[in-house]
Amino acid sequence: MESVSLVGNFTVDVIHVKKRTYRCIGGPPSYGSLVLRDIKDLKVRVFGNYGKPHTDFLNYLVLHGASVKGKKCKNYDMFEIFGIKKKKISIKKLGCALNENPEGDLFIFNGVDNEIKPETIELAKNSGGTVFVDPQGFIRKRKVGPVNLYKNISFIEQLKNVDYIKVNDTELKVISGSGGTEGIRTLHKMGVKNVLYFSGTKIILSGKDIYIKLNVEKSSEIYDGIGMGDIFNAGFAYGLLKYGVEFAVPLAHAATLKRIDRACLLKAPKINEVEDDAKKLLKQLIIQSQKAI
Where are the alpha helices (DSSP H) in 138-224? Predict the structure, then answer.
């Protein structure tokens, strides 16, 4: 049985949007494990620490096929988020650093505040697994207050062990020093095999032997935008394992769109709910045999 390992801490998020304030269980493994729940032929492992507020939610995940390998900590990660798609974000509390060495077939490294040791990426790669990285947590300074990004040299040294990295322009510029095409090329030179790049109305996957582009429309239905990237990551990982990279991109995007008008965890669909939508998006995919940038 194939497995996906989600690496990163659970959080509690205080969200201010549309003149409303609500508190929600959050963190990348929350959204990712919900997307991958109830899949009979897939083992879902979560390597993430948590606190007392997460207990009932973790029990739910276990009932729906996930196993949680992290530890319960007195202090847990807490964020305060303002505006749609995190226009302003602050760290209110820092949780425990992760000391687990994850195992599995495909790893999603998606931390929240530098709780993951970059060296863990190398351990995962050496185990023979495929490594997918969302760099947001690796480039956030580990301190309470407004989120500040920085160029994490220890993380950059691990890029040679990364099979897939997903970046937007801000993250790309912090890591590589450049945006757009130049930044993508720099990531390849740093050792990343495949770059998933989000910019405006397009999603690009740039690899050594393949170039994929999916043109997307901006949605006016987004409620808070929280967790959309985490949903994408889980959908991409599942698509990669089950169908290959060409279907992984539209499947991941279809997953983010399915319940885009709902708040926090309510927007996470089961992945089998979006396969028909992904097949429609697949027809819009632009695929070339060689990298075209």
Answer: 153-156, 169-176, 180-190
Distance CA 76, CA 97 (A): 10
Mean pLDDT of the residues in the chain: 94
Percent of the chain whose pLDDT exceeds 70:
98
Phi-psi region of 128 (alpha: psi -120 to 50; beta: other; left: phi over 0): left
**How many Å is the maximal CA-CA distance in the chain?**
51
pLDDT band at 217 (very low <50, low <70, confident <90, very high): confident
Token couple for 57: 């939610």
**Cα 205 from chain centre:** 15
Q: Which of 202, 152, 141, 194 is nearest to 176 (CA)?
A: 152
* 138, 155 Cβ separation under 8 angstroms: yes
Tell me the angle at which helices 55-63 and 28-35 cross, rounded to the nearest 10 degrees: 20
Whether pTM > 0.90 for this model: the answer is yes
The counts of H helices and E strands in the chain are 9, 15
Return the closest-CA partner of residue 159 out of 118, 208, 105: 118
- Counting beta carbons within 10 angstroms of the beta carbon of residue 260, is it exposed (0 to 12), middle (13 to 18) or buried (19 or more)? middle
Among 237, 251, 259, smallest CA distance to 166 is for 237
From residue 281, give the alpha-carbon distance in Å to each of 97, 151, 275.
Answer: 39, 35, 10
**CA-based Rg of the chain, rounded to a whole angstrom?**
18
Which pLDDT value is given to residue 209?
Answer: 85
Q: Which residue has the tokens 């990295």?
A: 165
Condensed to tens digits (0 to 9), the pLDDT of residues 157-198 reads 999 999 999 999 999 999 999 999 999 999 999 999 999 999
Distance CA 189, CA 176 (A): 10
What contacts 190, CB < 8 A, 6 or more positions away? 156, 159, 160, 176
